[in-house]
Amino acid sequence: MEQIATDRNPAATATERRAKLFRGLADPSRLAILDTLREGPLVVHEIVGRTALTQPNVSNHLRCLSDCGLVTSIRDGRFVRYQISSLRIADFLRDADALLDIVAEGIEACRNYRLDEDEIPPGGP
């Protein structure tokens, strides 16, 4: 029943799509990969070398980013080159950096969204 209500409410649908995008971008490894791909198309071992992530980790995150349409791949001989699927994604990341320059103090103080779950005190944030 909830799905039907969402389908009838374009604002709710847009909000859910946006939330799904932000959940996909919420992982530090995926952001590191996207940051690296802002330089241009790269193969997996080049991404590994520039991010210090493991090869299996990079491959898994690339699959996720590809499935979500944020990254595309191009076969280059025996290698596969990955690239950001749209220049708008690189623009979005730049805009996020610019926004952080303005609100960084508030983001750093925010206790609701921590990268390290061990830092969350007992009983929640």
TrEMBL record:
CDD domains: HTH_ARSR. It comes from the Bacteria. SMART domains: HTH_ARSR. Keywords: DNA-binding, Transcription, Transcription regulation. It holds the Pfam family HTH_5. GO terms for molecular function: DNA binding; DNA-binding transcription factor activity. InterPro entries: ArsR-like_HTH, HTH_ArsR_DNA-bd_dom, Metal_resp_trans_reg, WH-like_DNA-bd_sf, WH_DNA-bd_sf. PROSITE patterns: HTH_ARSR_2. Residues 10-104 form the HTH arsR-type domain. This is TrmB family transcriptional regulator. The lineage of its organism: Bacteria, Pseudomonadati, Pseudomonadota, Alphaproteobacteria, Rhodobacterales.
